[in-house]
Amino acid sequence: MPPTVCRYGIMGTAGIARKNWLAIRNAGNSRLVAVASRDRDRSRAFIAGCQADVPLDPAPRALGSYEELLACEDVDAIYIPLPTGLRWQWAVEAAKAGKHVVCEKPCAASVAELESIIAACAAADVQFMDGVMWMHSKRLEPLRAILDDPATVGEIRRIVSQFTFNAPDDFAAANIRMDAELEPLGCLGDLGWYTIGMILWVMHHRLPTRVTGRMLRSGSAARGGAPVPVEFSGELLFDDGAGVSASFFTSFRMANQQLVSVGGSRGSVRLDDFVLPHVGNELEFTVSQPAFVNDVCRFDMERHDRRVAVAEYASSHPTAQETNLFRTFSSLVLGGIPDPRWPAVSLAIQRVMMACVESAERGGAEVRLTE
Question: Which portions of the chain are predicted below pLDDT 50?
């Protein structure tokens, strides 16, 4: 009888792994069997903390090395929330060990690194997927239908995406996202992966033909080292006949924002929480088709907004997008046929992101991309 549960190991004890501990449990076709750290006491502490909040039966094993995790015969897939500077090595090693790979974003520090991860997964016939949760929300189904409806948005002209948070005062001293050795892409890698990914999703994952990037502010870890992006903006141009332009902005210095706006010839769509949905049991977006009325001395702009919602809890629930991610990934593993679309999406995001880095290093000069 074919297996009905995908068995996971977590490689590392990053904070985001606590959220996915719960997501794996809620998926229904998934089970967490082991957590590995280079320090067994750290993996024990991680398991103890999660067990106290969301108990699993049986509790996962605590392992003292990543190699030990890759050698586990009862582990089918590895979830890798390690720092970006370490992901390439261990994602490749996981594939070579015959393990399917869910990798946090940014998946690599360069296009070449991600290409080697994807090649290793293809050679081992294992599934690769990045850990972006919004891509698995049921909200995308009605959003896609409306974006593709010629009577609602019409021809898409402009996409704007922004993801920011205001980091605490001790961020440079305490957070690896300011460490160039561990997170060389700073806010661009941490937040820009989402904003670029949303732009590409709207465009059915077509690559832009030209991009520009601007390092608006950089900073270094308190202990020193090379600077990383702290505020970064980019412009994407699609010269493939559609004439669409897009921009994104990311920052560690602004209050929480995670919005996307898509404007077309007939209307627009706005999401205010596309990465981390606002707490509730519905996810929504707004369709806007305002009307301008001019009658002699009257100049009125009439609001015509429509709320679209789906029944989906924001987090910590079997319907939540992070649960859908692991449910979908487990289904692919259990089905035995890897889906090449997921690594292709990740590679497109990485290519655009690195082209923006190249542009910023050249003072904002335009960089051309080809398929």
Answer: none
